[in-house]
Amino acid sequence: MGVIDSRVRNLAELTLAHKTRGERYESHAVRIGPLLGAVDLGCSYDVVPPGKASCPFHSHRAEEEMFFIVRGRGLLRYGGETRAIRAGDVICCPTGGPETAHQIINDSDEELAYLSISTQRPVEICEYPDSNKIAAFSEGLDHITRPSAALEYWDGEAGGPGPNAGA
């Protein structure tokens, strides 16, 4: 296989992993970026069965995402709005807070397939408005909490606040 062949994959020939969580979430998906040698660009292919979503409603503080609907139709939740989506639609989800939170839901009676393309950042913060969670992701760190569990900067530090508090 030449270098050029290692940079090309056909969606129909990918091996998808089945993921499910409870009644609401299910998909068959694969991360394509690593298969193609991508370094700074993430790409995944998701096939979502009728009545399901592949992930919770969320926003990103570091990574920008774009979706391309390959086949089927569904619903896009974006910030406080909802709209129908269909094959051929391209969706941009820039970084931000709850106003850029997004989720793709298959509310149809056929499979919904889409590509997720994103920038890859070494550190990511995600917010989940429906469940009031905040997540921090980095190499070797996956931490999810709620704002109500927030600690003060000096909490647990020996000696407590000092002359450089807040520095």
UniProtKB/TrEMBL annotation:
Organism whose genome encodes this protein: Pseudaquabacterium terrae
Q: Which UniProt keywords apply?
A: Metal-binding
Q: Which CDD domains does the record match to this protein?
A: cupin_SPO2919-like (cd02224)
Positions of the Cupin type-2 domain: 47-117
User: Pfam families attached here?
Assistant: Cupin_2 (PF07883)
What is this protein's record name? Cupin domain-containing protein
> Which PANTHER family does this entry report, sorted A to Z?
CUPIN TYPE-2 DOMAIN-CONTAINING PROTEIN (PTHR35848:SF6), OXALATE-BINDING PROTEIN (PTHR35848)
Q: Which InterPro entries match?
A: Cupin_2, GPI/OXD, RmlC-like_jellyroll, RmlC_Cupin_sf
Q: Does the keyword Metal-binding apply?
A: yes
Does Transcription regulation show up as a keyword for this record? no
